[in-house]
Amino acid sequence: MNRITTLFSGVNDHPEAGLLNVYFTAGFPELNDTVRVLQALQDGGADLVEIGMPYSDPVADGETIQKSNDRALENGMSVKILFEQLADMRETISVPVLLMGYVNPVLQFGIEAFCKKCAEVGVDGLILPDMPMDVYLNEYKAIFDAYGILNIFLVTPQTSEKRIRQIDEISEGFIYTVSSASVTGSNTGVSDDMEAYFDRLNAMQLRNPRLIGFGIKDHATFKKASDYAAGAIIGSAFIRVLQESNDLEQDIKSFVRNVKNYPETIEA
Amino acid sequence: METLEKKSYQVDSRGYYGNFGGAFIPEMLYPNVEELRENYLSIIAEPSFQKEYNDLLRNYVGRPTPLYRANRLSEKYKTNIFLKREDLCHTGAHKVNNTIGQILMAKRLGKKRVVAETGAGQHGVATATVCALMDIECIVYMGELDIERQAPNVARMKMLGAEVRPATCGSRTLKDATNEAMRHWINNPVDTHYIIGSVVGPHPYPDMVARFQSIISEEMRWQLKEQTGKETPDYVVACVGGGSNAAGAFYHFLDDEDVKLVAVEAAGKGINSGHSAATTALGKPGVLHGSRTILMQTEDGQVVEPFSISAGLDYPGIGPQHAYLYDSGRGIFMSATDEEAVQAAFELTRYEGIIPALESSHALAILGQLGATENETVILNLSGRGDKDMATYMKYIV
C-alpha cells in the first residue's frame, strides 16, 4: 500500500494530534541540503514531507517560496539532480514523501519517466497545482496508477460543492485544502470565514481525509487547523526558518517540535 | 465583430487549438476562469454588448482605422504594400480593441476592479484608459526593467489613475509582470477581472482576445476590396510577441489558405546569440501562463528569460493559436533582429512619414525577404506608433 494511504488509514478526520506535513524547496538553502532537510524533518516528528521542485514561474506561490525557488535554481537544482539526491532516501526515510511542483518541468522530463523515477526512489505522491483535472484523467491517470503514485488535488473556499465531490471521487490519499483565496505565504491565520468553510467541508462527509494549508505557520494555527481536518501543511514559515538558520538540523527539529508542541525534553 | 461560427484554426469546444491551449491553472484560479468561460460567448453575443462595443470602437477608438497603400515603400520592394493603421487607434496601438471589449465584459460580470500586466506599456495604457472611461479601479503590473525603458507610458498610466506596481522577480519584464498579475487575481478572486493583453493565458482568454482583435482583419477585407476590388491579399504580415495583433490580423483570413500568414518574432541580438525572443525558433512545446503552447525553456523545463529591444515582444512564449499555426504549417514564422527592426523603423519614417512602434518595426523588417512580386498584395499590420520608443530611436540619430 502507498505510504500516504497507510498513514491516513485508521486516522479519522479529527485525530487528537493532527498530522503535520512540511513543505520545503529542493536544493535550498544549498544544492545538497535536500536529504539533510528531509532527514531532520522526519527526526523532528513531521508526519509527511512535501519536497518542492523549484520552478522559474511559480504563479501560485508568494514571495518567500518564490525566492527559495530562485535560489535553488541558482544553486543548479533540476528534476534530474533531485532524483539523484533522493536515490537512497528510503534507507533512512520512512515518512511519506510527496513532490510538489509545476507541470512544465514534469512534462519536459516525461510523465512516464517521471512516475517511474518516483516509484524507484520511493516518492509516494505528487502535487501539481497547474495540472488540469481533465488532462490528468484523460492522459496521465493510467500512468500514475501503474506506478502507484497518488495525485493530490487542491480545493479552495471558492471551489463549488459539485467540483469538491468530483475531486473527492478521483482522489486518493488526502485532499489539499487551501485555507483562503491567496498565494502561499499570506499572513491570514485561521479566520472565522475559514472556520465556516472548514465546517462546510466536514459536513460534506468526503471519502478522503484533508490537510489544511496556506497561512499555517506555528503551533496555534496548526492546532486550530487540525481541529477541522486530519492535519495541516506548513510551507513558507518553514522556508523562513531555513533562510535564517545557522544550524539546520537543530533548527528544523525544534521548529517541528514547537509546531506539534512536543515537550522539548523528548528526543526523537 | 461578426461570427461565433467554428473554423478549423479556431478554438475547439475543449479550449484547444490542435494540441495547444487548454487551461493549466491552479485550483485557486479555476472559479474565475470558469466564470469567464461559461459567460464570454453569450455576453459577446448580447445585442447591448455589441452595440456598446461597436459604438466605442467607432467613436472613442477611432475605427475603422485606415488601410493605407504605402506607395514609396511599395515601389522600393516592387510589390503592393498596404499598411493597416492600428497605430492611429486611441492610445497608439491595437491593444485598446481588446481592453474595450474586456472592460465591457468585466462590467457585465459585476467586477469592481481590474488587474493587468504590461510589457511596453501599451496594454497597460489601454487598460488604464478604459478603466478611467468606466470608472473602475485599475492595477497594472509591469516589469521593473520595462518601467525604466518605457517611462512615458508609465507616466500615462499614472495620469490615467492606474496604480503601477513593479514586478521585481526574474527577468523583471513581461513574463514576470504576468506572473504577478496572476498572483493578484488568485488573491482577489471574486471582485477582480484580469484583462490579459495578448492571446495568451488559459482558455478562454486566447479566444476572447482574438475575437476582440478580429475587427482588424474584418476591416482589412472590406477596405482592400474597396481599394483593389479584391477581398484577400497574398500576404498578411504582423509581429508576434504573445501575438494579439497578429491574431486579429489573421483571424478572418485563416480559412483562406491562399493568403500567406506571416508572423515575425523578435530575434533580439540574433537567434543564436543567447539574447533573443524568437519563440518558435528556440522553443518547444510546454506549459506557460496557463496554456499548452511553444515556449523558450531549458532542458529541465525552466522558462528562459527572453531578450528583445522591443518590450512588447520580450516574451518567452506565443499564444496557443499561433503555436498551432506554426505546428500545422498554416503560419509562416520569420524573425527580425533589434538592428533590423530599428533600420526598418527609420525606413518607414523616411519613406512614408510614419514613425512606427519598435514592435511593428519587426514586421516591417522582413518586407525584403518576403518574396512578394509586383502583382501581389501585402497587408502589414502596423500595430502601434513609435512615440513611446523615441528614447531608443534617438540613440540612432547622428
Descriptive report:
The complex is a heterodimer of chains A (268) and B (398). With 268 residues, chain A is an alpha/beta fold. Helices cover 45% and strands 13% of the residues of chain A. Chain A has 12 helices and 9 strands. In chain A, helix 2 packs parallel to helix 12 (248-260). Chain B is an alpha/beta fold and 398 residues long. Helix content of chain B is 41%, strand content 18%. Chain B has helices at 30-45, 47-61, 71-77, 95-108, 122-134, 144-149, 151-159, 174-187, 205-213, 215-228, 244-250, 279-282, 320-328, 338-352, 358-365, 390-394; strands spanning 16-17, 20-21, 67-69, 80-85, 113-118, 137-143, 163-167, 192-195, 235-239, 260-268, 284-288, 291-295, 331-337, 377-382. In chain B, the strands form 4 sheets. In chain B, strands 3-4-14-9-10-13 form a 6-stranded mixed β-sheet, sandwiched between helices. Chain B has a 4-stranded parallel β-sheet with strand order 7-6-5-8, sandwiched between helices. In chain B, helix 14 packs across helix 15. The mean pLDDT of chain B is 95. At the A-B interface, helix 3, helix 5 and strand 6 of A face helix 1, helix 8 and strand 11 of B.
